[in-house]
Amino acid sequence: MGAEIGMLVVETIAKIRRAYFVHGQPIKAICRDLGVSRKVVRKVIRSEATEFRYEREAQPLPRIGPWSDKLDQLLFANEGKASRERLTLIRLFDELRGCGYAGGYDAVRRYARRWRKERGATTAAANVPLSFAPGEAYQFDWSHEVVLLNGATVTVKVAHVRLCHTLASSMSPMCLERA
Description:
The protein is of the alpha+beta class. A hairpin with a 2-residue loop joins strand 3 and strand 4. The protein is built from six helices and five strands.
C-alpha cells in the first residue's frame, strides 16, 4: 500500500495529509500504515507541494567514463556502415572488452541509447531539398480522360510529362490510339 519507488504519488500524499490533519494520527502510525519513512511524512506535512520527484542532474559514469571516447568512435564507425554490416551492441561490447573495458553490458547499452538519442536530435532537423540539373530527371504518367469531341463523349489517353528541374508540365492527348 506504499508509494512507488523513486516517486511519491499524489494519492499517498493525500493519505498522509488526511491521516495527520483530519484524523490526528501521529507520524509513527502513518509510517507504519503506509510503509513510508518518518522523513517522508514530515516532508509532506511541512510542504504544500502535491508531487515530489527526484531526478539526478548528472549521471556518474564510473566504469564507462574513461572508455566513452573509444565507445564514441565505435558507435560512430558502426553508424556509418550499411545496415546489414552494422554490429549489434553485444558485438560492440565485446570489442570494448577486448580493449580492456571491465564494466558491464548494461552501461554500454544505456550509453549507446543516450548517444543515439543525442545524435538523432541533431540529425532529425535536416531538410535536404531535391535539385536536378536540366534534362536530368522527369516524371511521366498516363491518365484516361473523358472529353467531348464534335458532340460525342470520347475517352482518350493523356500522357503527362513534368520536368523536375523547372517543374514545367506538358500533356498530350492520344486520340488515335487503337485497341
